């Protein structure tokens, strides 16, 4: 898109021409690598606003034009990627316009005018690629403002920035809040570290203790952090890829000149065909990377979905950086001592800068894992992050294991203390349910995005769909049904939205008219065995010990054909718990009925397995493993 600035037609070609002039003016000066000087001077010809909206004074270029400028600037210096356009300030626009504060809008305008420079602060001492494992936290006070505590490390631009975009956990975690904080904000302490690259930018970290942050500094709404991160870095990783391509191409230009001018053994080294072959291969790789970047930019411009674009951006971020790094390293090698010296070439600096970019904002290894995950099968990713290091088959036929941390209460549990409001009172039933589902999820460590949000929406869906017609016990059984379906259907396409998946399960359950109880008043439910119907639901509301047993078992027919693999969840009072599942067949039968699991073959007319002896079909059940978890209900239940 074209725009006017002081009666000049601003195009990508115009921006590149003006950047060339500015580079010549600043070359051999102390401010050559200063991002602040570049942004101040660049704002005069529109460099700082090329990818920002017209309403903020920007030019709103097409992404295909923006990547041309990033690649061109990368030829000068990879760190010049920070002087182009909005850079990280674009995070402020990753939310709905109605959610954008005046504070954020003002900073965007300042960036366009060259008066502000924004850094981003996410990484922590123990949280890098797995950024959702961060520990820094925000708590909302009675005035609606926030109190922040935490420490960040390995963050760039801190000494140059006027503002930082700060990621911290929301108080109900693991959702994330994002704040736009002035760099001189009271309570924000800046630390400095040394880095191999990042010329012109500083490297360090920040710490903050009981730091008060006004609510106006919040970007978007509470809990929007993950969505903001993914939307912003989808674009930013593409820009980094384009800049890296430029860095690599310049290194190959230097290599070609070296091959033509350097004599060895009686002639130019360019006569050696092995060097020509290497030059050709590095050139091909960089141009392949450039074509991929152009493809993704076109997808942005044509309005492709986030899901579609996100298939290719990790590929570009990983391979463009690796292609460029390999090209620079090779060029440095054929320059010999000149390449190693900082007095004669900048190749060593290019290598160091690319090494940093290989790590920053999505490491090469993580990006490649994302490629495999999206192009082939999500199970590759699950295997990689499963802390049990056990291979998981299509069905979860794996041994259950104990959880080191016995405190599985979720921080948001108080929000549900009054969620079930039937004749039994029931304020603590959600506590029981949330604890139960969290134990299961902790055991399997599924890489579910924002699991507490998924649970929250599940409770909301159950409440809304039931319209208050379910008793406490029925809610327990319904939630158990969701757990069972999740474990049984573990092979469902993981790219399906998990919240939508749970919602569909809820809706499917309530649509099954034949499964609904004939009457609600007596608390009966076909999902619940007589043993549970006889149990006064009021007992669940008293602060006494309970025990959960999760049983893994297989069902086989008389010809030893596997009919199904199942997990059963049993919640029982501790003084009435089952102690010997292998020997107590009646207890196992109760568990089986409780779980509402029938034979998968509909021809069996819904008959369940008789564990007191062989049933007419000759089916049998084999216990694989048992996991026991004990807890006590909240004292608020009194």
Automatic annotation (TrEMBL):
Keywords: FAD, Flavoprotein, Oxidoreductase. It comes from the Eukaryota. GO terms for cellular component: cytoplasm; mitochondrion. Gene3D superfamilies: Acyl-CoA dehydrogenase/oxidase, N-terminal domain (1.10.540.10), Butyryl-CoA Dehydrogenase, subunit A, domain 2 (2.40.110.10), Butyryl-CoA Dehydrogenase, subunit A, domain 3 (1.20.140.10). InterPro entries: Acyl-CoA_dehydrogenase, Acyl-CoA_Oxase/DH_mid-dom, Acyl-CoA_Oxase/DH_mid-dom_sf, AcylCo_DH-like_C, AcylCo_DH/oxidase_C, AcylCoA_DH/ox_N_sf, AcylCoA_DH/oxidase_NM_dom_sf. Residues 223-373 form the Acyl-CoA dehydrogenase/oxidase C-terminal domain. Signal peptide: none annotated. Its cofactor is FAD. GO terms for biological process: medium-chain fatty acid catabolic process. Belongs to the acyl-CoA dehydrogenase family. PANTHER family: MEDIUM-CHAIN SPECIFIC ACYL-COA DEHYDROGENASE, MITOCHONDRIAL, MEDIUM-CHAIN SPECIFIC ACYL-COA DEHYDROGENASE, MITOCHONDRIAL-RELATED. This is Acyl-CoA dehydrogenase.
């Amino acid at each position: 898109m074209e725009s006017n600035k002081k009666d000049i037609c601003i195009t990508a070609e115009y921006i590149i021409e003006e950047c060339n002039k500015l580079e010549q003016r600043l070359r051999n000066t102390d401010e050559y690598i200063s991002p602040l000087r570049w942004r101040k001077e660049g704002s005069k010809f529109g460099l700082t606003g090329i990818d920002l909206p017209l309403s903020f004074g920007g030019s709103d270029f097409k992404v295909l034009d923006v990547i041309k400028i990033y690649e061109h600037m990368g030829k000068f210096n990879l760190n010049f990627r920070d002087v182009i356009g909005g850079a990280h300030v674009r995070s402020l626009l990753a939310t709905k316009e109605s959610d954008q504060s005046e504070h954020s809008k003002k900073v965007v305008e300042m960036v366009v005018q060259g008066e502000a420079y924004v850094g981003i602060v996410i990484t922590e001492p123990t949280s890098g690629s797995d950024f959702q494992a961060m520990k820094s936290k925000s708590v909302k006070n009675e005035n609606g403002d926030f109190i922040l505590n935490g420490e960040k490390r390995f963050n760039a631009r801190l000494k140059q920035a006027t503002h930082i975009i700060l990621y911290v956990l929301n108080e109900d975690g693991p959702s994330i809040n994002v704040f736009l904080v002035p760099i001189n904000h009271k309570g924000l302490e800046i630390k400095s570290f040394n880095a191999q690259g990042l010329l012109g930018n500083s490297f360090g970290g920040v710490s903050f203790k009981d730091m008060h942050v006004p609510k106006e500094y919040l970007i978007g709404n509470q809990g929007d952090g993950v969505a903001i991160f993914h939307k912003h870095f989808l674009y930013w990783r593409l820009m980094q890829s384009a800049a890296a391509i430029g860095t690599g191409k310049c290194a190959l230009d230097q290599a070609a000149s070296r091959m033509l001018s350097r004599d060895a053994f009686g002639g130019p080294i360019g006569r050696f065909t092995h060097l020509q072959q290497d030059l050709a291969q590095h050139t091909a790789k960089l141009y392949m990377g450039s074509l991929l970047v152009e493809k993704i930019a076109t997808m942005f411009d044509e309005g492709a979905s986030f899901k579609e674009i996100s298939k290719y951006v990790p590929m570009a971020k990983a391979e463009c950086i690796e292609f460029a790094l390999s090209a620079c390293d090779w060029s440095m090698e054929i320059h010999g001592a000149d390449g190693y010296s900082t007095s004669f070439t900048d190749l060593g600096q290019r290598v160091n800068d690319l090494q940093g970019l290989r790590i920053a904002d999505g490491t090469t290894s993580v990006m490649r894992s994302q490629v495999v995950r999206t192009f082939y099968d999500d199970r590759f990713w699950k295997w990689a992050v499963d802390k049990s290091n056990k291979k998981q088959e299509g069905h979860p036929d794996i041994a259950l294991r104990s959880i080191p941390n016995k405190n599985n209460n979720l921080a948001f549990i108080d929000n549900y203390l009054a969620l079930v409001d039937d004749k039994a009172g029931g304020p603590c039933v959600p506590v029981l349910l949330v604890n139960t589902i969290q134990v299961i999820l902790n055991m399997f460590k599924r890489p579910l995005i924002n699991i507490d949000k998924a649970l929250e929406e599940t409770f909301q869906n159950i409440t809304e769909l039931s319209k208050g017609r379910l008793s406490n016990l029925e809610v327990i059984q319904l939630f158990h049904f969701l757990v069972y379906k999740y474990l049984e259907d573990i092979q469902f396409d993981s790219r399906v939205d998990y919240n939508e998946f749970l919602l569909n399960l809820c809706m499917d359950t309530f649509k099954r008219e034949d499964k609904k109880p004939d009457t609600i008043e007596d608390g009966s439910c076909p999902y619940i065995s007589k043993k549970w119907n006889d149990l006064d639901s009021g007992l669940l509301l008293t602060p006494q010990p309970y025990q959960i047993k999760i049983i893994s078992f297989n069902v086989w027919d008389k010809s030893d054909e596997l009919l199904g693999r199942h997990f059963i969840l049993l919640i029982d009072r501790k003084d009435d718990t089952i102690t010997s599942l292998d020997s107590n067949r009646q207890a196992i039968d109760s568990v089986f009925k409780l779980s509402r699991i029938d034979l998968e073959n509909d021809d069996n007319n819904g008959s369940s397995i008789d564990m007191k002896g062989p049933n007419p079909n000759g089916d049998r059940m084999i216990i694989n493993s048992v996991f026991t978890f004990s807890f006590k209900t909240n004292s608020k239940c009194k």
